[in-house]
């Protein structure tokens, strides 16, 4: 349904707008903002506050870095339920494995087609 695409677009856009405002109006570095997004996703996911956003916006909420944090929190919850306390250590890695693997594979492919050089 078209409304799902519209909701994904505006929610994802709003998340990006917040990041851009943080870049423009604060002295936070982009790396700190990105890390904050992941941490916010973990905290909101663990508290159960990110789930309604994911159900409403779909990819608009799961594609940004806050969605990565949310996926990590869900992986930890599931692993703790299955494995007890040891799930705290394995759940995040298991939940993030596909995304990390994709990043490594596509980075490798990009490295094959580009030439590295000194930036100075």
Overall average residue pLDDT: 90
In terms of quaternary structure, the protein is single chain
How many distinct folded domains? 1
Shape: globular
| Share of residues in helices | over 70%
Number of strands: 0
Largest β-sheet summary: none
Cα radius of gyration in angstroms: 17 Å
Number of helices: 6
> What structural class is derived from the secondary structure elements?
mainly alpha
Low-confidence stretches: none
Tell me the distance between the termini: 50 Å
Can you walk me through this structure?
- The chain has one domain (2-113).
- The chain contains six helices and no strands.
- The protein has helices at 2-25, 30-46, 51-57, 59-62, 65-83, 87-113.
- The protein is globular and about 50 Å long.
- The mean pLDDT is 90.
Give descriptors for this structure:
about 120 residues, mainly alpha, 6 helices
Helix-strand layout with pairing:
Blueprint: H1 2-25, H2 30-46, H3 51-57, H4 59-62, H5 65-83, H6 87-113
Give a summary of the structure in a few sentences.
The chain is 82% helix and 0% strand. The protein is mostly helical and 120 residues long.
């Amino acid at each position: 349904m078209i409304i799902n695409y519209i909701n994904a677009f505006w929610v994802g856009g709003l998340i990006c707008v917040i990041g851009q405002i943080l870049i423009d109006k604060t002295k936070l570095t982009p790396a700190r903002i990105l890390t904050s997004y992941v941490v916010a996703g973990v905290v909101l996911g663990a508290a159960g506050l990110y789930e309604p956003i994911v159900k409403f916006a779909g990819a608009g909420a799961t594609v940004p870095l806050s969605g990565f944090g949310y996926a990590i929190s869900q992986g930890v919850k599931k692993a703790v339920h299955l494995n007890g306390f040891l799930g705290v250590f394995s759940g995040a890695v298991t939940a993030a494995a596909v995304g990390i693997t994709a990043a490594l594979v596509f980075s490798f492919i990009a490295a094959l087609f580009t030439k590295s050089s000194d930036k100075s």
